[in-house]
Amino acid sequence: xxxxxxxxxxxxxxxxxxxxxxxxxxxxxxxxxxLGLVYSEQGKYENAIRYISEAITTNPxxxxxxxNLGEVYRLAGEWDKALSHFQKALQIQPDFVEAKFNLANGxxxxxxxxxxxxxxAEILVVQPTxxxxxxNSANILMANGQYRxxxxxxxxxxxxxxxxxxxxxxLAIVLSEWDHLDEAEIHYKNALALNPQFSEAKxxxxxxxxxxxxxxxxxxxxxxxxxxxxxxxSALLHEKSISPTIHCSQTEIAEYREELxxxxxxxxxxxxxxxxxxxxxxxELPTLSNLIYQGEDDLKIKTSYAALFxxxxxxxxxxxxxxxxxxxxxxxxxxxxVFLKCMRGIxxxxxxETFRITVICSYPNGEKIIRPxxxxxxxxxxxxxxxxxxxxxxxxxxxIDLLYYWECGTDKINYFLPFMRLAPIQCISWGWPIxxxxxxxxxxxxAANLETDNSxxxxxxxxxxxxxxxxxxxxxxxPVKDVMKPISYFGLNEINHHYICQQNLRKVHPDFDALVxxxxxxxxxGIVIFINDKNKYVSDRFKKRLQVSxxxxxxxxxxxxxxxxxxxxxxxxxxxxxxxTTHYGGGANTCYDAFACxxxxxxxxxxxxxxxxxxxxxxxMNYTYCVAHSSEEYIQKAVQLGTQKELRKEVSASLKxxxxxxxxxxxxxxxxxxxxxxxxxxxxxx
Length: 686
Prior knowledge:
alpha/beta, seven-stranded parallel sheet
């Protein structure tokens, strides 16, 4: 009767019945043990420990008693006692699978994942269908950043039980890390179909849909949440901030921005408080990373948004270093690849006699990705978790003089960390060329030709202008003629003139369509080449826009599948002209690739930093033939270079020669060192 009541979760009945048994038979070990389990399930661990301990005293050879007492201690957070009882059970019965499983769980929770993983593996040898051991093993692989192995492990779990909602969710997480986004979407939806109340899976699915451009579907999911229906500010902000990944028109952009600004300015300044700080690691709050693609002055929106968080964060007073000047360079999860392309040279050549350099990166994979690529042995690493409060404490304890954020506003960690003033000086630069809008971000490090006379009005940060672009860039591995693939290998015809726009499709503003159309109208043999986004939905949306805006010439717009670095450089080398996008043009990667190939890169100067990188590079080269100052001139220059072989040959030779000054620019590193020294000295003088 007691056991049946326990199974039915009628805990009071079970408790009373077991107590009745123990009144008649005080040394009944099973009644003592099971009464302890009844208490444990109710979270009454002190009583649970008492009664299971009495069962062990009565019957000291029962391994289940030791294992279950260990589990109660584990739940109570008493790790050492938990582990000792699991080990005692295994001493009595070495092949006791549940004791071994409980020991593995205890080690896993305590942080000894290596030993836990080994024990799970032993269990799976004996019981290959032990689904809990298989699932926990897969979770360890995921937590350690071993995503490829984790994918296989979660698939094995689902082969055992395809109705395992957590396994579907976690498989989707690791698939997303490998950019298998379509499959990830399916598994998130499977998890939700199995458990409609699975909030983490829903949150993950919303973020995925937003990232791949399914903005309306993402918004609809948010609107279905209780938090949205309760007008919870975080849910409202998240829903309204989602915009199409590819905008169809300038009108659509203007409407989105107006709605967003109206929301920010209508919310009270006390929408968030210090009570929300710890929750910020779980709240889905936008970082407004989409604004950079919209070609507008973002200052008002960014400052209005930042003002909502004024009362949230603790206001630290960082001390800085008392020894060597300490520079912390922040790069968060998923951004390590582009960071290395653009910052590896600076990390390898910056003076570690003058500065202590620490790369602050994400746990567990940041250091694994970055360290092997560096040649400077003196660069240190600080790994931070994806929890704002813990990350902030770790950075603060490092006593850093100047924090340099590679990007600020591309994810929640790199956006919210600067609010807390974790170093006496905080700055950003060209890694994410847009103002942060954050009051505690002090400087934006830029270069003369990246800005105009009016640029300061676009930043909340103080502009610090250098003479040179702050880049030390290694020359890309251009394919040699003997091993180059012909243009036909890529499905293109040699008789055409090839205009390549190698930019991320999100950068292709609706205004750019008119330039594409103009080039193709003036050059009947012209072909404009784009490279598909890694997500098919983004590419398809962009193609639909071009089918309308470039209707008469759309047949001569070609999309290549994503290419290896060697094939990409091969195509770029064989292209006649490279087209820089307007409003948000190429950065160091795409610009310097074109210069190294000698492929003329036509650019149109704009008023924002993000539209002026190619122009600034041309100015530094003292070669500006490919710079246009109007849409008409852009089209004219592109067509001239595309159709006039001798002109193109002459410009290509000049580009290769003039661009030597851009690569491995040690003077840029020295200037950046001077900038760091000056900013730190300004801080110390205050």
